[in-house]
Every structure is written in C-alpha cells, then in structure tokens.
Amino acid sequence: MSGADEVRAQAQEVAGGWAPPGAPSSWRLTAALFEAIAADDELLEQLAVLPPDRLPALLASAAVAFLVRRDRPVPLASYFPEPGGSQPRFDDGFFPAFRAFCAARLEDIIEVCRGRRYQMNEVARCTQIVLGIAAVNGGSADPVALVDLGTGAGLGLQLDRYRYRVGADTYGPAAAGLSLACDVRGPIIPPSAELPRIASRVGVDLDPVGLEDPAARAWLQACTPPEASALSRLAAAVNIARRHPEPVITGDVIDALPGVLGSIPPRQRIIVVDAYMAVFLPEDRRARLAGILAQAGRGRPVTWLSLDPLVPLGPSGRDSVQGLPLPPGLTRDYQHGGVFAVLGARIFDGAGDRGYLLARAHPSGGWIQWLSGEPAPGGEGGP
What we know:
This protein is α/β, with parallel strands linked by helices.
C-alpha cells in the first residue's frame, strides 16, 4: 500500500472499533471523525509524510480536536463535547463541516501534527488491567511493584485509587474520585477485581505529560475520544494524579527498563503493564522487551501484562504482541471488523516462561470478554 493508503487503513480500523452493531450513540462522533479522515485524500497525502511511528491517523484526529476546541469553528465545534457537558447531537452535517474545516485549515492541522506525538490516556482501560492483575496474582497477599510502560500522564499508576464496576459487581475504595464501568461479555465470569497492595510504582515514557502544564493537559484532552464520558473520566483521573504524583522516568522504554527493574526492592514481585504500547514496537524491539523481562525474572517473578491490538497494526493483524498462540476464531473475528485488544500475560520466574491468554477487550474500556485464563496452547510466549 502507499503511505496514504496505510494511513487510510489505520483510520478505518479505528472507526470500526467505535462503530460495531449496538454501539452507544455517544461513540458515533469518534467513529465519524476517523471515517472522515479516511475519506479526505488531500489530508491523507499530507499525513503520509509523517513517520509511521507517529500514528498519523490518530495524530490527525487529535490535531483536529485541538484546533476545534481552541478556535471554535462554526459549525464543526457544535459536534464536539466539552468536559462536564453532555454529548451533542450527531447528524450527517458533521461530514461537510469536517471537509470544509480541513480544506480551510489543512496547513494548521499538519503543523500541529508535526510538532506533537499522540498521547491517548484512556483511563477506562484500567478496569481491564486490574482484572488481568487479579488473574495473575491468584489472591496472593504479597506486595507488588507496578511498572507502567508508555505511561504518558501516569494515570495507569493510580489503579488502586479508582473504583470499578465489572458487570454487576463493584470493587475499590468507596470514596474514590473516579468510578469506571466495564461490561462483561460471554459466558465466563472474570476474576474478582481485587488488587494486591502496590508497594512501589513507576512509569516510563518517551515524552511524559506534565499535568501541571495547562498546554499539556489541553493536548491530552485532544487525544481523548470526543465523547463526553471519556472527557469526564480524564478530568477526574488528572485530578487524582495531580494529588498523588508518582515517579515517571523519561526515556525509551527498552533502554530505560533494565535500570528501572534493577531499582525495585528485591522482595517485591514485579508487574509490568503495557497498555497499547508494545503494538507500536517493531518485532525486534518486542523481542528485546521480552528478553529484558526474562532476564529480570531469573531473580524473582516478573509478570508482563499486555493490553494490545494484534500485530501488524491494522486490519491484517494476526499475532499477539507477546507471541501467545491465538485461537483461529479470534484472529478471524479481528480481521473481519471486530477490532479489539487482547489481554495476555507472560510470567517469567527463574528459567520458566508461562503465557496466558486472558481476554478480548474493547479499545476504550467499554467491555471485556473473558477467555479460559488457562496457559496458552504451546506453553511459552514467543518474542
């Protein structure tokens, strides 16, 4: 495919994730935004010049949202919700409004894209991560160290300060400043979302988001799906993170990780969380990530918990980022429009390496479909 076609496919994949049958009406704007990007040939040609690791389609969606909220262009701005407000009514007038805006402001959109990196911190995914931690923790009371890769604003380091509703059950502190809800699909009930005590926590990110900076918060908001509830979740999570700042290391995750793991007190079991980070790494760097974790696991148990789409990124995705064997039906569903993430775990303990395929998960935390939780067929993970 040409560069423009690759960006188009990326936009179409994201649109599909927000437009399945029965999707809430509040998701329609997110799907439409990516549908409109995929249909704008001039915009796609400009985006194709950007490095692929900058995620051009996603970056363009954030750039449009950023400019729309800043400049309030009529009528496009009327479709975008504001934090604390309700979801505006959506109609087909969005598409001509988008085309007119892009035609008039194409240079501004590309300028924003050139100077930024996409930084989506969808805190609703924390429910899925907590269920993964509960599954691999097995009810142990031992404290753990939490390492969040690609942490961005560090919202994923605040897991134990949120409240969770999973299906009909509720977990977490009753006085939490943020409550997250996740529907349960399928016949298998997930484990109870009970967290072990987090004794230490640290994030790693190439370009961390400084939450004390209003401009950084505005860009973080622009990278959030234009859905009223998502903006409200983000605002609440940012408030919690500003009250409880946790350490974030600035650096490439592969380069920084050995030092981070080595700095953790030796008696603490380590849980390394990767939510929508490894999917953007080339295969050789995913292999290096697994090798670093395996080496650290020779001295104590290290768990790699991954919440990622399949690779290669796009509708042809067919492999787990962790190298876990996948049932053919899961891959088939993914490639035929059922875009989702896979929640998996690899546990490195001594010379051992056990892999577990845990769940399918909605990309914005809306639902989870628990799988068997048994060791993945074939035993060890791949990369």
